[in-house]
Specification:
The chain is of the alpha+beta class. It has two domains: 294 residues, no CATH class; 91 residues, no CATH class. It is built from twelve helices and 21 strands. A hairpin with a 5-residue loop joins strand 20 and strand 21. Helix 6 packs across helix 7. The longest helix is centred in the middle third of the chain and has 19 residues. About 2% of the residues have low confidence.
Length: 407
C-alpha cells in the first residue's frame, strides 16, 4: 500500500523494471578471493558419490543431478554436475551487500535462483541500483545510511540483515540500449528543464536525493531547472565514487596527506576492527591503518557499520569439513589494497553528506513535479510491459545438456 506523503513518486515509478535478489543457495560459491573458489571447485569435482553430494549442499532447487541452462554470457557447462570433471569457470566479480565486491563461480548448476534476466543485461555499460530498505541495527548508530546504492558488478541486492531486495538495472538491453525509465518521463522532464534529460542523469539525481519511506524509496523531482542541474552534478560525483573507476570515471582518491596507508601489517587472523579517534587509526590486532577519517569508520548502511560487515565477510569462522573452510591461511595482500580503497570510498561519501542534506532541503522547499502531473502527462501509471524484462533476440544461450536456445 502506497504511504508516500506529498505526492512524491517512488523509484519504482521512475525505474519500473526490477528483479528480485539472486538466491545462491550455498555459501561456498562466493568468496573474497578467486583462488579459494578454484580450490573449492577442484575439491568438489575430485569427490565422488555421497561425498560430492555432501560437499555440494543440495537444496530443493539444485542438486548435483539438476539439469539447467547456462548463465547468459557465461561459458560454464550445462551437463549434470554429478558428471562434471572439468576446470572451474573463471570467477566473476559479485556484489555481496553494500560496498563489498567478492568473487562468484558463474555456473547456473550451482545457483538456486541466479536471475538470468540480470546476467543477460550485464556488460561494461550497465549500472545496477539497489534500494537499502530497513535497518539492520547492531552498530549503535542512529544514522541509517544512504537510501540508494549503485554497483557496476552484479549485486546480490540484499540488506545488511540479509533481507532480499529489488535490483534495478539502468538499461533493459545489453550495450546501454533501452533505458529503464518510465516511458515519456525523459521527454516530460526535458521540456520542463529546457535541457536534455538522460537515464544516467535521472539515476544520478535519484542517488543524490532519494530517501527511504514506508512503501519504498521516494525520489522527489524538482521543477527548478537550476536545482536539477546542481543535483545531477552532485549525483554524478556520488556515482563516480561508488563505481570506483568503472564506467569511465577515475578511481576514488583522497587528497595527499589524507590517504590511508598500512602503517603496520595486518596479522594472518585479525580480531574485530577497532578505531582510535585520536590517531585516526583503524586497528586490526597488531595491524594498523591510518589516517582513517571518522566518517569512514562510522559509515553505516541499513544501520550497520560497513567496515564491520566487510571484515566479518572475511574473518567469520567456517565449519570444518565444508568447502567454505577452503580459504586463505593468512591475510592476502590484495585484501589490504581493497580495504584502503573501501576506506577512501566511505570517507569521500561521508564528506558529501552535508551537501546532500542541503540539496534535499532545497528540493523540499521548492516546487516539485508531483505524481498528479506525471499521471496527467500519461507517464504514470507505468505500462505493465515496462515492468517486464525486454526480449533479447540476438543472444544465443546454451540450454540443458548442450542444447541451444534463442532468447
Amino acid at each position: 500500500m502506497r504511504t508516500v506523503t506529498d505526492d512524491v513518486p517512488l523509484l519504482d515509478d521512475l525505474m519500473p523494471w526490477s528483479v528480485r535478489s539472486p538466491r545462491l543457495g550455498r555459501g561456498w560459491v562466493v568468496a573474497p578471493d578467486a583462488r579459494s573458489l578454484k580450490a573449492r571447485w577442484d575439491a568438489l569435482v575430485r569427490a565422488d558419490g555421497a561425498e560430492r553430494e555432501r560437499l555440494f549442499r543440495p537444496t530443493r532447487a539444485r542438486t548435483p543431478g539438476s539439469s539447467v541452462p547456462a548463465l547468459p554470457g557465461q561459458p560454464s557447462g550445462t551437463g549434470r554436475f554429478s558428471r562434471e570433471a572439468g576446470p572451474c569457470p573463471a570467477p566473476v566479480r559479485f556484489g555481496c551487500g553494500p560496498f563489498d565486491e567478492q568473487w562468484l563461480i558463474p555456473d547456473h548448476r550451482l545457483l538456486d535462483a541466479a536471475r538470468p534476466e540480470l546476467w543477460r543485461v550485464t556488460d561494461d555499460r550497465q549500472i545496477f541500483a539497489v534500494e537499502q530498505a530497513g535497518a539492520a541495527g547492531g552498530s549503535g548508530s542512529a544514522e541509517p545510511g544512504p537510501a540508494l546504492l549503485v554497483s557496476a558488478a552484479l549485486p546480490d541486492g540484499r540488506t545488511p540483515a540479509g533481507r532480499p531486495g529489488r535490483i534495478r538495472p539502468l538499461y533493459r538491453r545489453p550495450g546501454g540500449a533501452e533505458p529503464n525509465i518510465a516511458p515519456g518521463l525523459a521527454a516530460l522532464l526535458t521540456a520542463r528543464y529546457g535541457q536534455e534529460v538522460t537515464a544516467g542523469q535521472l539515476l544520478a539525481w535519484a542517488v543524490a536525493v532519494a530517501r527511504l519511506v514506508p512503501g519504498g524509496c521516494a525520489v522527489p523531482l524538482t521543477a527548478d531547472p537550476g536545482l536539477w542541474s546542481s543535483g545531477t552534478e552532485l549525483g554524478r560525483r556520488l556515482l563516480r565514487i561508488q563505481l570506483r573507476g568503472a564506467r569511465g570515471g577515475g578511481r576514488p582518491r583522497l587528497p595527499g596527506g589524507r590517504r590511508p596507508y598500512v602503517r603496520a601489517a595486518v596479522p594472518p587472523r585479525p580480531g574485530p576492527p577497532e578505531y582510535d579517534p585520536g590517531e585516526e587509526a583503524l586497528l586490526l590486532g597488531a595491524g594498523r591503518i591510518a589516517p582513517v577519517p571518522a566518517g569512514a569508520w562510522d559509515f553505516t548502511v541499513g544501520g550497520a557499520r560497513v567496515l564491520d560487515l566487510w571484515f566479518g565477510n572475511r574473518t567469520a569462522p567456517a565449519e570444518p569439513g565444508t568447502l567454505e573452510a577452503l580459504r586463505p591461511a593468512g591475510w592476502p595482500p590484495e585484501w589490504s589494497s581493497e580495504l584502503l580503497e573501501l576506506i577512501t570510498v566511505l570517507a569521500l561519501l561521508a564528506e558529501l553528506r552535508d551537501e546532500q542534506a542541503a540539496l534535499r532541503r532545497r528540493v523540499s522547499e521548492s516546487p516539485c513535479v508531483r505524481r498528479a502531473e506525471l499521471e496527467a502527462a500519461g507517464v504514470l501509471p507505468v505500462p505493465e510491459g515496462a515492468r517486464r524484462p525486454a526480449s533479447v533476440f540476438d543472444h544465443h544461450e546454451e540450454g540443458p545438456e548442450g542444447q541451444f536456445a534463442l532468447m
